[in-house]
Amino acid sequence: MNACWIILQRDVRLASRRPSDALMPVVFFVVTASLFPLGVGPEPATLRQIAPGIVWVCALLSSMLSLNTLYAGDYSDGSLEQMLTSNTHPVAVAGAKAVSHWLLSGLPLILASPVLGLLFDLPPSQIALLVASLALGTPTLSLLGSLGAALTLGLRNAALLILLIVLPLSIPVLIFGAGAVASYAVGLPSDGHFYLLGALLLLSALGAPVATAAALRISV
Amino acid sequence: MNYAPRFFTFAAPLRFYRLAGAVSPWLYGVAALFALAGLYMGFMVAPVDATQGNSYRIIFIHVPAAWMSMVIYLAMAGWAAVGWALNARMASMLARALAPTGAAYTFLALWTGAFWGKPTWGAWWVWDARLTSELILLFLYLGFMALVEAIDDTRRADQAGALLAVVGAVNVPVIYFSVRWWNTLHQGASISMTAAPKMASTMLTAMLLMTIACWAYAFAVVFVRARAIVLEREAEAEWVRALPEFKEKGMP
């Protein structure tokens, strides 16, 4: 547990020393989401309808974008090898890295999403739901994504490969995350979506670190 | 009598290479024969469908291709897992040989589905749960192939591919149900493929013949590809260098 805490602290400290790198995903998130009105047209009714989907897709892409740096630095300077040969169980290392990815890329997205909700003219209740669905869904993305990052460690096209590998696996999260807001908007209950998002989070929290640890053993 | 070694006889690349080389021409023959018989049944014998006319006849390739796409994914994940867990090289090679065929069948199922959808539904594509999950299956195949191709070290490539294939196989039901619920929630295409009229027995026969043809073709082409992979990986081995096909061409 102690080692996990140290890994977390270290990643946060490393990110704080390079704030421009750490802010890249959230800037990407806001910029891509604001491209959609320019492409689709400024009709407020249309934008309101597609806003949850846009915000979710952009969140998904931006959290994938920051994945290839999750293990790459530690891998190239050898500290990943040290972590894996230390007393800490590889599953704990994988879990801690997934949490640190979520802290550094998922949490900023959640904090930025209300602003995007305002840009798309969503009512406050839907913005709140959007934030809640992102809060429940983005940890799953980080967990699944860290598996992709571990599998593609040190490869030439790691960034693109991660997208190709992880995006199909993260489709359920996208469906239930965006669906929660969309179903609320048409007057349907959205509890079911949240339960399923929670179930996906539990499943991936149990399975993904184990798989990621196995992938790290393969790759390192 | 000790039967244990027999079980692993064809795990040796040399024996597999010989067996696959001997069997694959026959499998091609079986595939061609059954395809001819199936196409004859499908086009000449099976009656015209009451509601869809002649356009339904694409079912004879569409449904077997869709079946193969799913079966091959499971086979691929299974062999990859065996190769990873037991460190069996031949199983890993077989998994890699299966992937392009599986992807090809998935693509074929999607494409013939589009051809079938245009006359019957009036659209090349609808975001129906089955179509969408088949499309995602294609993405899973592409991800697997891209990952194993990107890794130069064969051992790492096999193991990473195995892990990804197994994770994908575990995810397939989750993806399928999420897409189904997503579809019903959106009240999208109000088309039900499950409510199709009962099939005439000749139609079923034609489809079964085509299914056998697809299986045989898949086996044949996977064996040929696996043989190529064996040659590639075992190029330094004594027995490969002693092969007549190597000596004739004067390989380095």
Please count the helical segments of chain A.
Answer: 10
Q: State the major sheet of chain A.
A: none
Q: What percentage of residues of chain A falls in helices of 4 or more residues?
A: over 70%
Low confidence ranges of chain A = none
From the spread of the alpha carbons, the general shape of chain A counts as: globular
How many distinct beta strands of chain A? 0
* Rg over C-alpha atoms of chain B, rounded to the nearest angstrom: 21 Å
**Percent of residues in β-strands of chain A:** under 5%
SSE order of chain A, as H and E?
HHHHHHHHHH
Radius of gyration of chain A from CA coordinates: 18 Å
How far is the N terminus from the C terminus of chain B?
43 Å
Low-confidence runs of chain B? 187-192
**Hey, which two chains have the biggest interface?**
A-B, 28 and 25 residues
Q: Quote the average pLDDT of chain B.
A: 85
Q: Give the fraction of residues assigned to helices of chain B.
A: over 70%
Overall structural class of chain A, as computed from helix and strand content, comes to mainly alpha
Mean pLDDT of chain A: 91
Structurally, how many domains make up the residues of chain A? Answer: 1
What characterizes the major β-sheet of chain B?
none
Number of strands of chain B: 0
Number of DSSP helices of chain B?
A: 9
Structure, described:
The complex is a heterodimer of chains A (220) and B (252). By secondary structure, chain A is mainly alpha-helical. Chain A has one domain (2-219). Helices cover 85% and strands 0% of the residues of chain A. Chain A is globular, with a radius of gyration of 18 Å. The two termini of chain A are 23 Å apart. By secondary structure, chain B is mainly alpha-helical. Chain B has a domain at 67-193. Chain B is globular and about 60 Å long. Mean pLDDT of chain B is 85; it is low at 187-192. Chain A binds chain B through residues 147, 151-152, 155-157, 161, 164-165, 167-169, 171-172, 175-176, 179, 183, 188, 196, 200, 203, 207, 211, 214-215, 218-219, and chain B through 136, 139-140, 142-143, 146-147, 150-151, 156, 159-160, 163-164, 167-168, 170-171, 174-175, 178-179, 181-182, 185.
